[in-house]
Amino acid sequence: QVQLVESGGGLVQAGGSLRLSCAASGRIFSPNTMGWYRQAPGKQRELVARITSGGNSDYADSVRGRFTISRDNAKNTVYLQMNNLKPEDTAVYYCNGYFPIVGTHWGQGTQVTVSS
User: Fold this and answer.
1) Residues 89, 67: Cα–Cα separation, whole Å
2) Would you state the pLDDT for residue 29?
3) DSSP character string of 38-80
4) pLDDT tens string for the chain (116 positions)?
5) Which of left, alpha, beta for 92 (phi over 0: left; psi -120 to 50: alpha)?
6) For residues 30 and 73, what is the distance between their CA atoms, to the nearest angstrom?
């Protein structure tokens, strides 16, 4: 199977920045897609951004222009650079990966809290 380990969450003031990382290990096949979802209290989990191993990416409208997703295929790691953070970005952020043969996997989640 595949393990996804996230890091980089924390507490930041509005307007600040954070960078999340997610390292994948295990039975990793390509091409694949990795990305980030988030879930705020009382809300459904939603897609934030995702990127294919070929470098194609897409974003939720609410973060486009503020967040940037990237990846290092040699390290099987995906990053989410979050700039100009807003209180409404507060959520648990989950790394997600879809890999051929082994399917969809999730990380354990990392808390991002943005204070006003």
Assistant:
1) 11
2) 87
3) EE-TTS--EEEEEEETTS-EEE-TTTBTTEEEEEETTTTEEEE
4) 899 999 999 999 999 999 999 999 998 888 899 999 999 999 999 999 999 999 999 999 999 999 999 999 999 999 999 999 999 999 999 999 999 999 999 999 999 999 99
5) beta
6) 10
Burial of 4 (0-12, 13-18, 19+ CB in 10 A): buried
Q: Please tell me the distance from the alpha carbon of residue 111 to that of residue 115, in angstroms, as a whole number.
A: 13
Q: Residues 1, 76: contact at Cβ < 8 Å?
A: no
Q: How many helices (H) and strands (E) does the chain have?
A: 0, 11
CB 2 within 8 A of CB 102: yes
